[in-house]
Amino acid sequence: MISLIKLLNTSILLLLLAPFGADFGVRLTGYQLNKPTRLTLLLVALINFRHKLVYYAQSLLDLLFGISPDLSKSPKIKEIYVHPVKSLRGDSVKEWEIDEHGLKCDRMYTLGIFRDGKFKAITQRECPKMALVYCDIDKENKRFNYSWDFGNGPGSFTLPMEPDVASIDSKEPVELWGVDFETFVLPDMIPSKFFEDLGMDKDTQLLYSPKGKAVRTNAPRFNNQYRFSLFQDYYPLLMVSDMDIDDLNDRIKVKGGNLVCNARNFRPNIVLEKVGKLFDTDNWCKFAVYTKDGKSHQWSVTSKCPRCPIPNINTETGVNDNKSIVSRVLSSYRRVDFGSVYDSFFGMSCVQHDYNYTISVGDAVVVKSRRINHYECIG
């Protein structure tokens, strides 16, 4: 009976506080449900409906009166990361192209092992030292230069931005987070020393995906077509806020942890600055990036990003924190999504509305609409 009364009181508060923000009521009451009830889902629908009305009303006013956003007060792109090979270290760039898969060339390759009739991607979960294989993007010569040195002599290899697969007769099946698609196997492009130094299985192969997989779960369609991503876990782009990373480091320090996180721990594509408040991006729905040419390009936030153990890896040593301090701290305050109540969330997954343009460090990011986002299992 007490739990029922608490639920009803919280529900009324959520409804009354809805006009103040997508998650204002939830944060103020501090009440968390183990699983969403029908009443919870109804309240979320009502709040999201209100936010949709606000979005349409604001869009109409902007159109009628020519109102432009104040870009000087908007969040900005602080860092851009491209990871040509999944789970190897990415490269920080000042500007980069957006194509139909997200950031051009991002996760176009992965390392994989053939098991149970299909390839499975190898990541830092299985091999933390992958974090120490450095990437240098050579745009002029259209190649990615990789290097490493684990104390037994340096090694290196180069991969092309546009691999020639015309001579490869067939594609092979690959699975990534339960999603099956097709890939090319590119033999002999990485020296055996690489696999030996990282302690990988001798049958590990380099895989290349020119098309990837359809992004259907919790994602918008454009002209009745879904976007496709390559070897990204699922969605084309991952975005985090520097303020949220700083807050996490403060919490780790309070807990006595020695690991200091940076953006690379979370392997995002975009790091934002000047967001304004902690985890404000949790409830973004649509946002626009204002590029240097004066145009704006819209993106949709699909969901918060559930975190695996990879952020526990020290990006400077390639050693996994034996106390899993990042995961433990995140679990204390970031189990915030009723779509998966036992996962910790950090960062936002996004889908681009259009493509064939360039984003740059310093570009303004303007929130166009908000909603209470929730995670849906991929599939």
From TrEMBL:
InterPro entries for the chain: MoCF_Sase_C, MOCOS_middle
UniProt GO molecular function: catalytic activity; molybdenum ion binding; pyridoxal phosphate binding
Domain of life: Eukaryota
Domain spans labelled MOSC: 231-365
Domain Molybdenum cofactor sulfurase middle: 75-190
Name of this protein: BA75_02867T0
Organism of provenance: Komagataella pastoris (Yeast)
